[in-house]
Amino acid sequence: MKKIYLICSLAVFLGIAGGISFFLIRDANAAIPADVTLINQNGDTYNFGKDKKKLKLIEFVYTHCPDVCPTTTKKMVELKKDLVNKGVFGKDIEFVTITIDPYRDTPEILQGYIQGFGIKDDKNWVFLTGEKQNMKNVQKEIRKVTDALQFQYKDPGNGQFVHSTFTYLVDENNIFIAKFPMGEEFNKQEVFDKIIDKTE
């Protein structure tokens, strides 16, 4: 009886360990495709394969979000101040916010979102969407990024998206480094420390 119990316990342990290993390996190998092209809040083209100089902290939002998205953006505004004081924001790292609702979140709407948070439009924090007349392709481009980082989202039909709650740090080649909780669980100090560790 003890032997069966030990075998069952070992099987469960190996199963859990295997599952954890799978997710760790999957995340470590995640990379945003270099061919992803969107437009920013000013209507300018942004291509993920062109910037090979900076880390990126990537946030997914939609501007109609009532809670976790604006809370995360607010915390990132505070994080930006700390990174500016450290001398690394814009030099070693940039922020990238991508809408998961490109149809409603036009460049003009994103500009309003930026202004609402008092974010300086200095090209070191870009807000990405796509052109309305090419929405099918825009959604495919956004999916390339979310799929690469395992960020899940869905519109149940009422315009209030159900989505994952993580932000992502990627290196200059857009390869996954780490992920952090969104909303109230976004730990500014933890993210700051990770960024500084990767820039020194």
Task: Please summarize what this structure is.
The protein contains five helices and nine strands; from the N terminus they run αβββαβαβαββββα.
Task: Provide an overview of this structure.
- Helix 2 links the parallel strand 3 and strand 4.
- Helix 2 crosses helix 5.
- About 10% of the residues have low confidence.
- The strands form three sheets. Strands 5-4-3-8-9 form a five-stranded mixed beta sheet.
- It is of the alpha/beta class.
- The protein contains five helices and nine strands, in the order αβββαβαβαββββα.
Question: What characteristics describe this protein?
Answer:
alpha/beta, Thioredoxin-like_sf, 5 helices, Thioredoxin_domain, five-stranded mixed β-sheet, 200 residues, globular, copper, SCO1/SenC, 20% strand, two-stranded antiparallel sheet
Q: How many DSSP H or I helices?
A: 5
Uncertain residue ranges? 8-26
Instruction: Please give the alpha-carbon distance between the first and last residues.
Output: 55 Å
Percentage of residues in helical conformation: 40-55%
Structural class: alpha/beta
Biggest sheet: strands side by side, in what order? 5-4-3-8-9
Q: Helix-strand pattern, N to C? A: HEEEHEHEHEEEEH
Largest sheet: number of strands, sense, barrel closure: 5 strands, mixed
Secondary structure tally: strands: 9
Tell me, what's the shape? globular
Q: For the residues shown, what is the average pLDDT?
A: 88
Compute the gyration radius: what is it?
A: 19 Å
Strand content: 15-25%
